Amino acid sequence: MINVENLTKSYAGDPVLNMESLEIPAGEVFGLVGNNGAGKTTFFSLLLDLIRPSSGHVLNNGVQVDTSEDWKPYTSAFIDESFLIGYLTPEEYFYFIGELRGLNQQDVNEFLEPFEDFFHGEILGSKKFLRDLSKGNQKKVGIIASFIGNPKVIILDEPFANLDPTTQIRLKKIIASYKEDVEVTLLISSHDLLHVTEVCQRIVVLDKGKVVRDTKTSESTLKELEGFFAEEIQPTEGE
Ligand SMILES: Nc1ncnc2c1ncn2[C@@H]1O[C@H](COP(=O)(O)OP(=O)(O)OP(=O)(O)O)[C@@H](O)[C@H]1O
């Protein structure tokens, strides 16, 4: 579904992403991990044509994202609050996204019903504007909005960050449910190794913009990843 070919991004000559090739098949729940500055958001921003590659390209279902718009109807994402519209209430925002995806208000209301627990009584009917919601509640709105209209590719940047423990557990269940869906490709990034290993079928580790690990998730993945990141804090010689 997603094919990356010789993708690089540099700022003022400094490379921040250098990905020779990466193939993410349709239906995969894909996890991206890496320390601060590893290039995760850069990669997602390139997938969404929010920034331009320095070289190479990304194909989304065969469509090159920086030269065609045709990937947009089946792709959705929540990267950060800039995806929200601050002066709308959550309902108005959901209806707006629904309209973009060809759903009327009744369709959107029905879609939202199963997420009442996830919203924990603080989103729907609150009559607050999105700009006035807490960071965590804004994130809940952005994540759920990204599921509206059955997109085939969903990209979520650090979806667990800022969420309370109850919501994190609920979100894990929602994301894990996509493992059964062979049509939806879901990409998440996270700093939480436990969460990604629980919900992702495959995990790629980025380090200084490069793919340094690419593994199918198994029972040993969490330990291996903890080992990998622990090595980064081993004292260097002479310390
Ligand atoms: N507009 C920009 N100009 C210069 N450097 C940038 C710009 N945007 C990102 N970078 C750099 O690119 C690198 C990768 O950043 P990116 O946000 O992709 O990392 P990340 O893995 O998402 O990090 P984090 O886990 O902290 O969110 C960082 O060194 C960052 O400073």
TrEMBL record:
Q: Does the keyword Plastid apply?
A: no
Keyword match ATP-binding: yes
Q: Which InterPro entries match?
A: AAA+_ATPase, ABC_transporter-like_ATP-bd, ABC_transporter-like_CS, ABC_Transporter_VariousFunc, P-loop_NTPase
Q: Which UniProt keywords apply?
A: ATP-binding, Nucleotide-binding, Transport
- Coiled-coil-forming residues are none
What Pfam families does the database record attribute to this sequence? ABC_tran
GO terms (molecular function) for this protein are: ATP binding; ATP hydrolysis activity
Q: Where is the ABC transporter domain?
A: 2-233
Name assigned to this protein: ABC transporter ATP-binding protein
User: Which species is the source of this protein?
Assistant: Echinicola strongylocentroti
